[in-house]
Amino acid sequence: MNKWFKLGAVAATLFLGACSTSTSTTTSKDTVSQAQKNWDAIEKAGKIKVATAGTLYPQSFHTDKDNSLTGYDVEIVKEVAKRLNLEVDFTEMGVDGMLTALDSGQVDIANYSIEEGSKYVDKYLRTEPHKYSFTSMVVRESDNSGIYSWADVKGKKAAGAASTNYMKIAKKLGAELVIYDNVTNDVYMSDLVNGRTDVIINDYYLQKIAVAFGKDTFPIKINEGIYANPYSASFSIKLGNDVIQQKFNEALKSMKEDGTLTEISKTFFAGEDVTQPKDLKLEKIDFSDVE
After folding, report:
1. DSSP H stretches of helix in the chain
2. What's the CA gap between 202 and 221, in Å, rounded?
3. CB 23 within 8 A of CB 237
4. pLDDT single digits (tens) 232-254
5. Containing H/E element for 217?
6. Terminal C-alpha separation, the chain
7. 244-272 mean pLDDT
8. Quick check: 287 and 169 in contact, CB under 8 A?
9. Residue 275 · residue 261 · CB < 8 Å
10. Across the strands, what pairs with 178?
């Protein structure tokens, strides 16, 4: 579970960001024809090629027991493929290379969530959302890190990976940014407890898992009730591959209707159902002007 804060850019794009919904696209007759040909090729091969990170708990990671690839996103793809009578050919790669892999045809689907407002929104198709979440913060249990509202983040030392939406939020709120690169959860937690940092802003469900995992060692907590910026996560598909998008969405819809998606969610998110948005009071923090 120590891969939570290693989300980095993925946290800003895969989960963690803003609302993500499927993209409706108007295509020409030739494009639609090519989209069908692309799907026919997948069916003929009997497999669909998917890019995933393989390092991001609990979405895409390897088990300690036998090093097999699993995770919430991974198991969704496996079940979708099963319902489409396909096998899955996973290619593990860094998030930065996933859209390029889509463009080149190396993969058919990328485990990469494009957030609303991103420069990529109109350049790729998105599946229907499979996860809904929001932004929260982790603070010291002893003194709340002196933070009792989002406004109190001003002047505090915020820990995180560079260029994520979470660090952009911290910057927007006037925090001092403390940048980490590919470190484990215990480093983040230890620095928070000893005062090197004051707050960690990230995805609520990921923080909940991480805090529960480290509670016996690190006296930290989620700052309950201080939440912001709801968002949803989806998979990305090359623009023009409408048939792949349609087939994926149909299978995903059936998984929602028969409860399979919820079961997978509860398996990887400690009993939580992330397939539906929570009815909570969420503050909106606009960081669109933050570089």
Report:
1. 9-13, 29-45, 72-83, 98-104, 165-172, 185-193, 204-214, 242-257, 260-268
2. 13
3. no
4. 999 999 999 999 999 999 999 99
5. none
6. 30
7. 97
8. yes
9. yes
10. 159
Nearest Cα to 185, choosing from 151, 146, 212, 166? 212
Task: Report how far residue 44's alpha carbon sits from residue 20's, in angstroms, rounded to the nearest whole number.
Answer: 31
Q: What is the pTM of this model?
A: 0.81
The per-residue pLDDT for 30 is 55
* Domains of the chain and CATH, by start: 34-130+234-269 (3.40.190.10), 133-230 (3.40.190.10)
Alpha-carbon distances of 278 from 15, 133, 224, 273, rounded to whole Å: 15, 8, 14, 9
Output the pLDDT for position 275: 97
Going by C-beta distance under 8 Å and a sequence separation of 6 or more, which residues neighbour residue 206? 4, 7, 11, 15, 16, 58
Looking at every residue in the chain, the average pLDDT score rounds to 89
Whole-angstrom Cα distance, residue 184 to residue 197?
15
Query: What is d(CA 288, CA 291) in angstroms, rounded to the nearest whole number?
Result: 8
